[in-house]
Each structure stands twice: as structure tokens, then as C-alpha cells.
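Trying the structure run again after the queue cleared.
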Amino acid sequence: MTSALQLPTGSLPAASESETPPGAERLPAGLDRMLDLRLPDLIATRRFLHAHPELSGREFETAALVTRELSAAGLRPRLLPKGNGVICDIDGRPSGSVIALRADLDALPLTDVKDVPYRSTVEGACHACGHDVHTSVVLGVGLLLAQLARRGKLDGRVRLIFQPAEEILPCGSLEVIEAGGLTDVSQIFAVHCDPNLPVGRVGLRVGPITAAADNITVRLSGPGGHTARPHLTVDLVDALGRLVTEVPALVNRRVPANSGLLLVFGQASAGTQYNVIPNEAMAAGTLRVLDRDTWDEAPKIVAQVVRDVIAPTGATVDVEYLRGRPPVVNDAEAIQVLTAATVATSGPVGVSETPQSMGGEDFSWYLEHVPGALARLGVGRTAANVDLHRATFDVDERAIGVGVRLLAHTALKAMAG
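Done. C-alpha cells:
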């Protein structure tokens, strides 16, 4: 991504004023009409970000773009210490509560294969998880609420958080927290794209909505040698096979059956020659678990099972267990706010009960400090939607307007609450 990126202008036609769905509410002070006028620009922003993705930890130009847009609206955004994230307060009534809205900026290390005008121009980087949508939505909310604050009609303070590095470890949410992003915050909210829900539907759930997710790397070592004389070696290929096939099942036997633990190795390597037993091997994967108590115990369980399985082979074992993120646990009162905001946005038909996912989300670290909730924003395009984290992933862009209205209603109702 080159420096000093500028948004294109005039790339989309102007939008007409949308109808309010049955049972929905209009935003105050003409904000719906303002959103209708801004929506083409927000869609253009999303497409621009999609075409110019930045990987986790490198979101410098994306953060700069967000900063420029917020500054142009009269706000005072500040960059995170590394310069790849943004925090911006919209100041209303000083005695009101502080409500935070979070978006994530980073893309995934995938090559975009879609045939669309906004296809990624960066080889090996693609917004395949919808973070370009999240950023455009929260940016749109900020532009609307800035107008409300300017008119003296904002009943508190809204903090916009544009976070780096959601897709990697260590998590970017921890950088935001360390930088004071949650200071004085009473509630925090976010949306995540869901291609399995149609536009206008919002997936809500009280309690855990995602799984905990950790990274595990196991390295094996021992004297290698000729495949003709394996008795003179430690056969690391055999040991690696035992590791990836036996350990997941045995770990499951050490935890409650309803904990939803899933250990999957996605990478394994050993050796480069057919007739040489190597002296090093490795496997790496993820551990995901629905239950918080089991997550707390998982590191020592995995380490012990790995050592038990490998011990008979004679290999030396090194287990690197990288703590990722706990489950996102939605607060009941925050879900009440989101439910009311969903009805205000899309009417009662917009509310969908959503299951707990095995995916991980570092929004969970914010909820370790303040109450809040994550909602699933319907972005489905067809009956056969493309799942997240695929290089063909795309969204129905009408979801951007829905997301802006949803989080605007959420912030206003939370402050009034």
C-alpha cells in the first residue's frame, strides 16, 4: 500500500432516501437522510479499503485514511502509539456515559481471486473477513454522531476505536487497552460480518458467542539417520504421525464432553529426503474451546498429553502454547440495547438468535474490562454464501447502511439507558 492514499470521488451514484422498515425508528435530527446522502461515499470507502488491504500490524495507511476522514468532520482522532490504529472521541454532554464502538482494520494473508472492480491490488492480502465493512460502518457512525454533537444533541461521549491486528497474536485489542482505549468507558459494542444472515438481519446472543482460540506449536528433535537403520535413530516422522493423530483425541478425553474443545493441526513438516530420517520435525495448529474454565486449564492439559504421547518414541519435545483470546461473552444488558437498536433499525424481523461459533475474536479482551456485546451483521449475498476467511469472500454492500444505523441507534440507546 502506497503512502498518502486518497479516497476516490464520484465513484458511485447518489442514494435515494430509504424507507423505514415496519416497526423501525428513524434516527434523530435528520440523520437518516444524512446517511442516505453519505452512503455512496461509505461504499466507495469500503471498496477502496478492499482494493488496498494491509496485513495485521501494518495498517498504517488505513489508519491514516480513517484519521483524515474523521478530522475532515471536525473530530480530533489520535493514533495509537505504533501509528496503525485510531481512537476518536465524539464529545457530547459531559455528564453522560462513554460508549465505545469498535472496528478492526487488518486484512488476511490471502490472495483475492474475485472478479470485481475492487479486487485487492496487493498480492497475498485480502479483506476476507469483512474488516473493510466494519471500518466503513464505524466511520459512518462517527460522521453522523459528530453532526449530532455539533448541534448539542448527543447525550454523552462516543468513543470510536479502529483497532489493528485482530487476526494475529498478540491481539491488537490489548494494544488499544494499554493505550487507554477503555478509560471511562461504560459499555462497548461491535459488529462482525455474517455471510449466513441476509442483509437486515442481526445475530444476537446473550453469553458466549465465540470460542476461545489459542495457537500451539510442537517441535520434535532427535538423532536422525538412514531409513535402512531406524533402530539407530529417533524416528521423528513416526513421532510426528503419533502427535497429529493421537493428541487431539486424547486431549478431548481430559476435558468435559460439553466443553466444545477442538484441537486441529493445520501444519506439519518433517524431512526433505525419502531415505533420510530427519533430526527435526514440527506441527502447529489451533485449540478452540467454548468453555472458559476449560480454556484456563488447556495449556497444561495439552503439554502433558503431548509429552505422554511422544515419550515412548524417545524424541525431545518442545511445546509452545501461545495464549490467544478467551470467548466473547455478551453482557445481557448490552444485548438488550442491541436488540432495541436492531428493532429500531430493521423492525422486529431483524432480530435473529445466533449460535455460539468456534471462531475466535479478540473483542473478548475488551469484555474482560467493561460490559458490552458483539452482534453479527447480515451481509449474505446469495442462498449459497461464501464463508469467512475465503479468498472469494464478498458482501452485500447494503449491509453498510444497516450497520451504521444499527450502531448509531445502539450508541444513542446506551447513552439514554
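The longest helix spans residues 31-51. Worth checking whether this holds up in the mutant runs.
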